Amino acid sequence: MVSRSTEVRHLQALSVLAQELHFGRAASRLHMTQPALSQLVRDLETKLGFRLVERTTRRVLLTGPGQTFLKDAEEILQHLDRAIETARTEAGQASNSIRIGAILPTAFGFLPEVLATFRHRYAGALIHIENRESQQLVTAVETGALHVALLRPPQNAGTLHVECLRREQFVVAMRTNHPLARIEVLRLRDLKEARIVRISRGDLREAFHEIDEQLEAAGLNIEPSQHADTTLTAMAFVSAGDGVSIVPSWTAGLTWKDVCFRQLNDLSASIDLSIAWEATNLPPIAEHFIEVARRTAA
């Protein structure tokens, strides 16, 4: 009786809430008010007879039974999506909607290029885009919440197909009045007297570890360095005159007050931008997006 009275909208609400762990953000994604979402979750809990989420003033967490229920619920949603896509294709009415995930840096160049070309074929397509961290995007594609994602290569791709699109170099960011700003192309040893803001991101651990090794090989002592947990945090330190930082080259495409960027001709470290998708029952519109992304990156 519980399964008959439980509707798809209940499962969708729980799935999105589990991804956001925040009623306000989840309600926004579901295009409903926060009280309406809360009521949906309470209704589902009443139907099931147990608590799905623990609510506090600061956060939302799934209970143990809630996590177990969510796993099966998301499988049901995936099967339903696939059934709809398959039936539409068979009927010659393939879906014109696509759900794309992307890390923030792609918004400053690559993603707009891909979308502009993509629109030529799917002018009326309904495009939904979500900006998240790479590991969150992996989960979203695995669960069927997204068709494709532009991300950094995950350490564990699971069942996903992951393809490298392009390799991005690093540059040095500094204030325009920094002594090194007078040199157009730098070498690692030129940074010997500079205060370095080092970035320590989990999803880019290997690339930044390689940078540290090359800095040490060039004779630099990196221990007294300022640490930043994200590229944008590092840029905040640089903008404040608190040192120089080796950052991904996409950063140079943004406007920063009194900040300039210089190449490092002997730094070999780089980071990859990849595209990931679940190959099973991939809709034609998603296949076309992948092909456009490949051509744009070439």
Write the layout of secondary structure elements.
Elements: H1 2-5, H2 8-20, H3 23-29, H4 34-48, E1 53-55, E2 60-62, H5 64-90, E3 97-102, H6 110-121, E4 126-131, H7 134-142, E5 148-151, E6 161-175, E7 185-186, E8 196-199, H8 205-217, E9 226-228, H9 231-239, E10 244-248, E11 259-264, E12 270-277, H10 284-297
Parallel strand pairs: 3-4, 3-5, 7-11, 8-9, 8-10
Antiparallel strand pairs: 1-2, 5-12, 6-10, 6-11, 6-12
CATH architecture label name of the largest domain: 3-Layer(aba) Sandwich
**Estimated structural class:** alpha/beta
The parts where pLDDT drops under 50 for at least 5 residues are: none
Which shape, going by the Cα principal axes? globular
Structure write-up:
- The protein folds into three domains: 2-87, Arc Repressor Mutant, subunit A; 94-165 and 273-297, Periplasmic binding protein-like II (D-Maltodextrin-Binding Protein, domain 2, 3-Layer(aba) Sandwich), CATH 3.40.190; 166-271, D-Maltodextrin-Binding Protein, domain 2 (3-Layer(aba) Sandwich), CATH 3.40.190.
- It is 41% helix and 22% strand.
- It is built from ten helices and twelve strands.
- It has helices spanning 2-5, 8-20, 23-29, 34-48, 64-90, 110-121, 134-142, 205-217, 231-239, 284-297; strands at 53-55, 60-62, 97-102, 126-131, 148-151, 161-175, 185-186, 196-199, 226-228, 244-248, 259-264, 270-277.
- The strands form two sheets. Strands 3, 4, 5, 6, 7, 8, 9, 10, 11 and 12 form a ten-stranded mixed β-sheet that branches.
- The longest helix is centred in the N-terminal third of the chain and has 27 residues, at 64-90.
- The protein starts with a helix and ends with a helix.
- Belongs to the LysR transcriptional regulatory family.
- Residues 6-63 form the HTH lysR-type domain.
- It comes from Sphingobium chlorophenolicum.
